[in-house]
Design goal:
The radius of gyration is 17 Å and the shape is elongated. By secondary structure, the protein is an all-alpha fold. It contains 7 helices and no strands.
């Protein structure tokens, strides 16, 4: 269980770091084309500027979460407070995808893959770190 939870942790956080940095600082236009099938050049100038600004901001937060996770990986897997914080943030992202699915409709296969991959990793990390979270409870 330990190796699987670390595998999912590092692959998830690796993607979070790469996607976050790429979308915030390199080329968010690619994301819109690949993920949404949207050519941002078709938007009005103010709409495009505001959408890209907000998207860059959210991707920068994603990158920041990835940095936090890499810098504190040992604490995430050994200290209750870090573990709970990490799981809450990761779980909030999964929950947002589920809400989106329920409210907006079924996302494409790539988005579904990410959601289930994240969910599997989240569950494996919860199971692996269960003793950490309940160590002081008894």
């Amino acid at each position: 269980m330990k190796h699987l939870s670390y595998f999912f942790f590092y692959t998830y956080i690796g993607l979070v770091l790469v996607a976050g940095f790429w979308g915030a600082f390199i080329n968010p236009y690619f994301d819109f084309d690949l993920l949404f099938g949207l050519d941002t050049d078709t938007l009005a100038v103010n709409e495009r500027i505001n959408l890209l600004s907000q998207y860059r901001f959210l991707r920068a937060l994603e990158f920041g979460f990835g940095l936090f996770s890499i810098l504190f990986v040992r604490s995430i897997f050994t200290k209750k407070a870090f573990n709970i914080l990490f799981l809450l943030i990761m779980g909030a992202g999964i929950a947002a995808r589920v809400v989106g699915w329920m409210v907006e409709g079924t996302p494409n296969v790539l988005t579904q893959f990410f959601m289930f991959y994240e969910l599997i990793g989240w569950v494996l990390i919860i199971i692996h770190t269960y003793k950490i979270r309940h160590y002081h409870a008894h």
